Amino acid sequence: MKVNKILISQPKPSSEKSPYYEIASKHSVEMVFRPFIKVEGLSAKDFRAQKVAIPEHTAIIFTAKTAIDHFFRLCEEMRINIPDTQKYFCASESIANYLQKYIIYRKRKIFFSKTGKLVDLLPSMLKHKEDRYLLAVSDVNTGSEARLLTENKINFDRAVMYRTVSNDFGPDEAFDYDMLVFFSPQGIESLKTNFPEFEQGDIVVATFGASTTKAAKDAGLRVDIEAPSPAAPSMTAAIDNYLAEHAAVSIGA
Questions:
Q1: Which option is the CATH number for 5-36+169-252: 3.40.50.720, 1.10.520.20, 3.90.1170.50, 3.40.50.10090?
Q2: SS3 breakdown of the chain: % helix, strand, coil, rounded to 5?
Q3: 40-164 has which fold?
């Protein structure tokens, strides 16, 4: 079956130079960007139920830009003033740079990992071991960061600031795709929630990451495209390869 319409379960790219648009043009397919999941911030009431006091922490750990947005939103809602002495530890440089949306970057103590891995921030954290850290996470966080901090005897509290929920499809919303592309186990869960009688048939399913692939297979889906792989380090490369291979088969037939 020829693939004509692909559902990418992520927000629409902000740049027209996205590889997805190049693939759409190259293979004459339609790309629809429609997340299966969405992020909702915790209310101040729900956050307080965790009994975590933000002002008691002298350092904040961010592993995602979304965590930054909801941290400052909650601080504003709860009228918490963040002192200039606050330290920020970010899992990557891009996350650290995102702080400029809320603070004057050059006047704050900001640390970031050059590799994108929190483990490489440990030397900086251990130099500031007297600080009390706040780890800002989502409700689906795996807990790997918390385990890392615990193992290294970092004084911290884990605080959920936002949750991932199903982005439900409307009754009149068309679902006529030839390929579904997933990036998280929660996306697979949302598919089954929205379409409990879903039958895959000829629909191509693509998954990114081992946990997403496992969730798809556990849900009874046939995974046709898996990324990353040596031949396709990105999802766009995997889709491009698949469409090229099947176009060649079609021509050969």
A1: 3.40.50.10090
A2: 40, 20, 40
A3: Rossmann fold (3.40.50)
